[in-house]
Amino acid sequence: MVEGLSLMFLLVSLLFVSRVTSRNFTIENKCDYTVWPGVSTASTVPLSTTGFELKKGEARVINAPTSWNGRFWGRSLCSTSSTGNFSCATGDCGSGKIECSGGAAPPTTLAEFSLNGPNGQDIYDVSLVDGYNLPLVVVPQRPQSGQTCITIGCVVNLTETCPSELQVMGNSSEEEPIACMNACQKFKTAEFCCTGEYSTRQKCPPSLYAKNFKNECPLAYSYVYDDATNTFTCSSSPNYVITFCPPITSNTTNNNRSSAADPPFPAQPSKETNGGTKRQRVIGMTKTLKQL
Ligand SMILES: *[C@@H]1O[C@H](CO)[C@@H](O)[C@H](O)[C@H]1NC(C)=O
Ligand SMILES: *[C@@H]1O[C@H](CO)[C@@H](O)[C@H](O)[C@H]1NC(C)=O
Ligand SMILES: *[C@@H]1O[C@H](CO)[C@@H](O)[C@H](O)[C@H]1NC(C)=O
Ligand SMILES: *[C@@H]1O[C@H](CO)[C@@H](O)[C@H](O)[C@H]1NC(C)=O
Ligand SMILES: *[C@@H]1O[C@H](CO)[C@@H](O)[C@H](O)[C@H]1NC(C)=O
Ligand SMILES: *[C@@H]1O[C@H](CO)[C@@H](O)[C@H](O)[C@H]1NC(C)=O
After folding, report:
1. What percent of the chain has pLDDT over 70?
2. What is the pTM of this model?
């Protein structure tokens, strides 16, 4: 009887544990072309994949351990050379293979996650600190669990609106821009990178370039000391959907200045009591992940 009870307890615990420890990321490609998602892990247990091909319209579910910490990005314009070396014009991870063994070469739009952090909450953001190559959104699957548990990302094509000095050109004969650098990557100055004498938020206000990114993508990090409204948290262990090239609403595509400046997503409530601490974490996360 006692043994029966403890067995039952064990089974129930196992069920409970396997339910809460299993998390899903669904990666979808709504671009008109193939995207090769890349994954880098900063925590100890990696995901089952570090990179794969996702054709137009395809989606793939990736299971994640409870406390996973890492980044997703997309690679575009990839090809395999005659010698069998795989490489991508944007987001390349330098492995020579479809699977990655490190981070992305900037400029690359990044979706960053720190699952099951303080108070069991997930922290996530979309970052343009390493520049931009593809539009992407992150959609938590239980948006009711917390006011800051919302859809975030950058839906517009920043490559199109990129200032010419920050554009990365493809090598095709049309000479089309294929990505947009962050001002820090391009100019490498302390002022744009918020290093040296500019290494605090007070001393490093947004540059015009950062303001431009912010205006186009209000729910993404435009530069390292962007305002505190870019860190999002979700409780109750939601799953996440990451969509490359999400459909753009007519409101975000028209050229009406006033409507183009409106955020494409619901406004973020800015009542964060410990926003400072959270920001430090994200900067820490960005720095840790950068070492990958
Ligand atoms: C994750 O996705 C798989 C496959 O779609 C599904 O069977 C599983 O129930 C999902 N897990 C969670 C925690 O949602
Ligand atoms: C293969 O491609 C990578 C870029 O992904 C490049 O860094 C490397 O030098 C290439 N290797 C060879 C042998 O061409
Ligand atoms: C963004 O604009 C560039 C340049 O016009 C274009 O080549 C690219 O396909 C566009 N990307 C998307 C996702 O529409
Ligand atoms: C750039 O040139 C290389 C070698 O010719 C080719 O494999 C690659 O697809 C080209 N990339 C783009 C973006 O056109
Ligand atoms: C788009 O703009 C129209 C008119 O201003 C508005 O009624 C509608 O709610 C907007 N849609 C979105 C998704 O913002
Ligand atoms: C453009 O903006 C003006 C001023 O805000 C507004 O009156 C007008 O309806 C907008 N037009 C469109 C097509 O959204």
Report:
1. 76
2. 0.76
